Amino acid sequence: MKVGAPQFTYLCELLRKRTGVVIDGSKEYLVVARLMPIVRQRAIPSLDTLIDRIRKGIDPTLERDVLSAMMTHETSFFRDRSPFETLRQQLIPALIERRAAQRQLTFWSAACSTGQEPYSIAILLNEHFRDLLGSWQVRILATDFSETVLTQARAGVFNNLETARGLSPELLQKYFRPLQGKWSISQDCRRLVEFRTLNLNTTWPMMPLCDIVFVRNVMIYFDIATRATLVERIRHVLRPDGALFLGGAESLIGTENGYERLTGVGCSYYRPKPR
Predict the structure, then answer these.
(1) Is residue 209 part of a domain?
(2) Is residue 75 part of a domain?
(3) What angle do CA 91, 272, 126 make, to 5 degrees?
């Protein structure tokens, strides 16, 4: 099944306007692959009919489901390792010293998908900073555009393939319990994470000031203008001595930004420049 040129153009523009994600004409195969499950599930005659229904606003939930399906939700536990080692070895110990009076830490995992990233932070905290959790207010805010992936994230249940990607057998046994052929994350980790629906490309709700922000493997799908706007907005919710992590293939090159690049453990991160 194919999608007509006018419908494809409309969908690409809708995706860009609503989410900031840019796809080009070479990605028609991707549109087909990601939208066909919706066509089948809803018994819609064709992809063109699906997109026409979105254009006419017949079913508001249809637009939401289509945009969610078009997003990339690739993730894994402790993805790329280096950012988490930077947290463990450098940033969290330094923040503990600097926040001794407030005794409060806030992490933000943006575009968290099915939850592996924020749960990885929770596992790291339980594994290496357990004393902190008993006496400090520690919060991990995890957000995503897609309510579909957030539903799975909130459940905290993962199959064998998902847990095999990034989790050692020791961590799996320590922080998960078997549940009907899958693995359910422990309450010690689950209680630290708060999941919310949030579109990075629209008005944000009230956000807490954050010590650590992960916006990893997100901006590769945005154009330069959207990237620049996003990192500027993040700067307003990131503490002056906080840290912003991007994906391994991402940087702030090409955007006017108020950050300095610092070296972590096998990776780089960004800190706001003094205003």
Answers:
(1) yes
(2) no
(3) 25
